[in-house]
C-alpha cells in the first residue's frame, strides 16, 4: 500500500539563496537565526531524521547516524510566496512572480470590486493584518465597509468583523474579488480574514480562508487522483490548489491540530498522498517577528515527530520540507528567499543518504511520481532511486 505523507513547515527556511539579494533578503536564515536568538532551542527528533546534517545548515546539531535521508532545495520559480512554493513542490515552476501591490491596488480594481459588492472599502494599503484591524476595525463596525489590504506577498486580503459581515458572506465577497483579479492582476491568493472582539481588543479568528488561483498546469496531485489514488489535504492545501487534484480535505485550527489530523489520515487504509501545511510558523510568528514563539512552535512540532513515525505504515514515505523562509529576527516581516530543508524517511528506505542541494522544489513531485508509478510529465528530478533499498 503505497503512500507519501508531505508535511510543509510553512516558512521554515534554512539560509539565504544565492539570489536572495534580488529580493532584499540578504542575511535571512529563519532556522539558523532563531537558534542564535533563542536560548535552549533544540530539535532532537528532526536532528535524528538528518536536519543537522544538511549541507550549509547552521544552528542545528548533527545527529551521529541520521535515520532519514536529507538535503536542501532551491526555489527555481520566481517569487517567494506560499502559492509559488507549494505549486513548485507539486511540480509547477513559475517563470515570473505573481503581482504585488506595495502601494495598494489600482483604482480600476477597487472601483470594480466596490461596485460588485455594493459597498465602499476601507484601507487599500500594504499593512500588517493585526495592526490594520486595530486601526480600522471600529470604523468598519460603524460603516459596514470591509477592510482591504495587502503585503509584500501577492495577496488581496479582506478583513471583516464576524458580527458585521458574517463569515459566509465574507467568503462570497472573496469569491467576487477572485473573479475580478485575473490577467495582469491575478494575485496568488484572495484571503478572507474574519475577526472578532471590541475596539482595542480585536483578534483574528481561525476561520480564515484562502481563494487561490487554480494551478496553471497539472500537478502531481492531479496525476495521482486521475490514476485512482487518494489525495488528502490537511490545512490550507485545499485552498492553495483551488481544490484541484484533491479527493479529501480537512480544515485545521493550528499546527498541532494539523499534525493530529495528518495522523488521523495516516490511520486510514488507502493508497496515495497526504499533503499537510502547518501555517502557524509563518502566520503567527514569522510575519510578527516573534522568534521566541516561532522557536516554541518548532519544538512543539519536533515533539510530535516520534508519533508521526509511529503511525507510518511499512510502505509509507514521510517527506518534511518548507515552502520559503520568514525570518523573525530580521527587520522585514515578509517572506524571505531561502533554501528549504528536505527530510525523507521510510521503513523501506536507506538511512543517512545525503541528497545534496536539489535544484528545484519540484524534485519532491518527481519523486512522489516515481514511487506511485504515475505518468508524470511535470518538472523536477526524482530521487527515489537514490533512497530505495
- Per the CATH scheme, the topology name of the largest domain is Alkaline Phosphatase, subunit A
Total count of domains: 2
CATH architecture of the largest domain: 3-Layer(aba) Sandwich
Q: CATH class of the largest domain, anyone?
A: Alpha Beta
The ordered string of helix (H) and strand (E) elements is EHHEHHEHEEHEEEHEHEHEHHEEEHH
Largest sheet: 8 strands, mixed
> Which runs of at least 5 residues are low in confidence (pLDDT < 50)?
none
Q: Estimate percent helicity.
A: 25-40%
Measured between the Cα atoms of the first and last residue, the distance is: 17 Å
* DSSP strand content: 15-25%
CATH homologous superfamily caption of the largest domain: Alkaline Phosphatase, subunit A
Q: What is the rounded Rg? A: 20 Å
Supply the number of helical segments. Answer: 13
By helix and strand content, what is the structural category?
A: alpha/beta
Principal-axis shape: globular
Overall mean pLDDT stands at: 96
Overall number of strands: 14
Largest sheet strand order? 10-9-11-1-12-13-2-14
Amino acid at each position: 500500500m503505497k503512500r507519501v505523507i508531505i508535511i510543509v513547515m510553512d516558512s521554515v527556511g534554512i539560509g539565504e539563496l544565492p539570489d536572495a539579494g534580488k529580493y532584499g533578503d540578504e542575511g535571512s536564515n529563519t532556522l539558523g537565526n532563531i537558534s542564535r536568538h533563542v536560548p535552549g532551542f533544540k530539535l532532537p527528533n528532526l536532528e535524528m531524521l538528518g536536519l543537522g546534517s544538511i549541507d550549509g545548515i547552521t544552528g542545528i546539531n548533527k545527529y551521529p547516524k541520521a535515520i532519514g535521508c536529507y538535503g536542501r532545495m532551491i526555489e527555481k520559480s520566481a517569487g517567494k510566496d506560499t502559492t509559488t512554493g507549494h505549486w513548485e513542490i507539486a511540480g509547477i515552476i513559475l517563470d515570473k512572480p505573481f503581482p504585488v501591490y506595495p502601494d495598494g491596488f489600482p483604482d480600476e480594481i477597487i472601483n470594480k470590486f466596490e461596485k460588485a459588492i455594493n459597498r465602499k472599502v476601507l484601507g487599500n494599503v500594504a499593512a500588517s493584518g493585526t495592526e490594520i484591524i486595530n486601526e480600522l476595525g471600529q470604523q468598519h463596525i460603524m460603516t459596514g465597509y470591509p477592510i482591504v489590504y495587502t503585503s509584500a506577498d501577492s495577496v488581496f486580503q479582506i478583513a471583516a468583523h464576524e458580527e458585521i459581515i458574517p463569515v459566509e458572506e465574507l467568503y462570497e465577497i472573496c469569491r467576487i474579488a477572485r473573479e475580478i483579479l485575473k490577467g495582469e492582476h491575478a494575485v496568488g491568493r484572495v484571503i478572507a480574514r474574519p475577526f472578532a472582539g471590541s475596539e482595542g481588543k480585536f483578534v483574528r479568528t481561525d476561520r480564515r480562508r484562502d481563494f487561490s488561483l487554480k494551478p496553471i498546469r497539472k500537478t502531481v496531485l492531479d496525476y495521482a487522483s486521475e490514476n485512482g489514488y487518494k489525495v488528502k489535504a490537511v490545512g490550507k492545501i485545499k485552498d492553495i490548489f483551488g481544490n484541484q487534484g484533491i479527493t479529501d480535505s480537512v480544515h485545521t485550527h493550528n499546527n498541532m491540530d494539523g499534525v493530529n489530523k495528518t495522523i488521523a489520515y495516516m490511520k486510514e487504509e488507502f493508497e496515495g498522498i497526504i499533503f499537510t501545511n502547518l501555517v502557524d510558523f509563518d502566520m503567527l510568528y514569522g510575519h510578527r517577528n516573534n522568534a521566541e514563539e516561532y522557536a516554541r512552535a518548532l519544538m512543539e512540532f519536533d515533539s510530535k515527530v516520534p508519533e508521526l513515525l509511529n503511525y507510518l505504515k511499512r510502505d509509507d514515505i514521510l517527506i518534511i520540507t518548507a515552502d520559503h523562509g520568514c525570518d523573525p529576527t530580521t527587520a522585514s516581516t515578509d517572506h524571505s528567499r531561502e533554501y528549504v530543508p528536505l527530510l525523507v524517511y521510510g521503513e523501506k528506505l536507506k538511512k543517512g543518504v545525503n541528497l545534496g542541494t536539489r535544484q528545484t522544489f519540484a524534485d519532491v513531485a518527481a519523486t512522489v511520481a516515481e514511487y506511485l508509478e504515475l505518468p508524470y510529465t511535470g518538472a523536477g528530478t526524482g530521487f527515489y532511486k537514490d533512497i530505495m533499498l
